[in-house]
Amino acid sequence: MNSNADSGVKQQSNLARAAEDHSLQRVPDGERQSGWKLALSPISVATALVLFAVGGFSIMLAGFSIGMVSGVVVAIIGVFLGKALGTIGFRTGVSSTVTSRIFGFGQKGSVLGSAIFAFMILGFLALESALLYEGTLVMFSLEDTLMTKVCIYGVLTLAWILLAIFGLKLALRASAIMTTITLLVTVWLIIQIYVVQGTNPLDFFTYEGMVPGNGWAKFQAAFGVMGATAGTIALVTMDFSRYARSDKDVSILAAAGPITQNIIMTVLGGMVTVGAVPQVVDYLLARNAGMSPEEAGAVAGGYVMGNTGAFFVIFAGWLGFLTIYAAQAKAQAINAYSGSLTLVNIVDALTGRRPGRPLMVVVGNVIALIMIAGGILGKFTEWLSYLGAMTFSMAAIMIVDFYIVRRGKYDPSSAKVENWNWAGLITMAIAASVGIALMVTGTFSIGFIISPFVVLIVYPILRKLLPEGTASSYAEANDVFEEAR
């Protein structure tokens, strides 16, 4: 009896430790991995439906040439941010939200950074689920009713919870296979469109986009969609850099996501969406007797951002349907996992209590459902723009604090951490507000790119005016992060 009980307790303990996955701890040296293996995580995120939509929509707006120029520029920015943040994550060995306690925000002040990260990652969790829902409606010709929503979103939410708690390692192991299958099916769709259906490839490569005006107007349109995600992939990269073994591994990890997301997926997404719209119009006309060609064209155009999975379902049937689900499973496991880390940090920083990550996975998925109910899919581009201003500001503050203010010096054994870094918090408010205000007022459509430059100027000045310890006590070392046991 006692041995069975002890065995049960031991199994539960092992399961709990596996689910926690160092959410508030430094990653032990023995669990560090190669950059090539770690790169599968951002690549998994970068090949999700929402990024397929971003790439395709950017090409539709700006055309192939300018869309690709925008993609290359965003990729360069993403690699720079990923390397800079990844090095910090590698040095500290803790997640991005916990690292923000040390650099830029303070122990309790990191709640602001965590809230931004939660807005980002849980927003992607919500968007991916919404895109899967729309694709499922097309696959089975379902009506968009309350009961349909409850059933489909209920199953999806349960799947993301189980994957993030118990299946993350499995999802990561299968990531290479699922990513390869996703890319192969996408290539197969391109063959169907340009070879079987006979669409002229030159129509894509010479496509000039829907945005009228000169090249700068088109570039702003594409950059406004793609550029806002550069900070996102960099923060995700930072989370996984804590598992890196060396600076070289950090470099590999930092390059993988932006190149996949902004170059490879832009080409593939653009080729499918631009080339497939005429066939999707024919499909809609065949399925809806009373629909006019103009109405069908509007619906097909809306599918690019609002129902990206429909392209896979219409052209590949069950194969396409299963592919988008397999592709999303790996990405959603990472989204739910990263979101839970952020929520753990928020509760811990505010209350001193360290909630279990499994509980926060559930809470994160509930928040994602609320965002879906609030219509996040219909506000996709606006959400991306505001997100860009906040994530660029957050990333820039940590980078400036680490590399400029502290000159890259960090000793975990002697580092003191404020509860409130007022210089960082004030800079965050100013930089994000400037970027958002520029976009809301129509002054500069890609105002989010101004936010990091505001940080570069404001934060060093405020740090001198408000030096470490100003209007703040210091946190105990074991409050900043929990040492591995």
UniProtKB/TrEMBL annotation:
GO terms for cellular component: plasma membrane
Transmembrane segments: 38-62, 68-90, 111-133, 145-168, 175-196, 216-238, 250-277, 309-327, 359-377, 383-405, 417-438, 444-462
Keywords assigned by UniProt, alphabetized: Membrane, Transmembrane, Transmembrane helix
InterPro entries: CodB (IPR030191)
Compositionally biased intervals (Basic and acidic residues): 18-29
UniProt key word Iron-sulfur: no
GO molecular function terms attached to this record: cytosine transmembrane transporter activity
Biased composition (Polar residues): 1-15
The UniProt record lists the keyword Disulfide bond: no
Gene3D superfamilies: Hydantoin permease
Name under which the protein is recorded: Cytosine permease
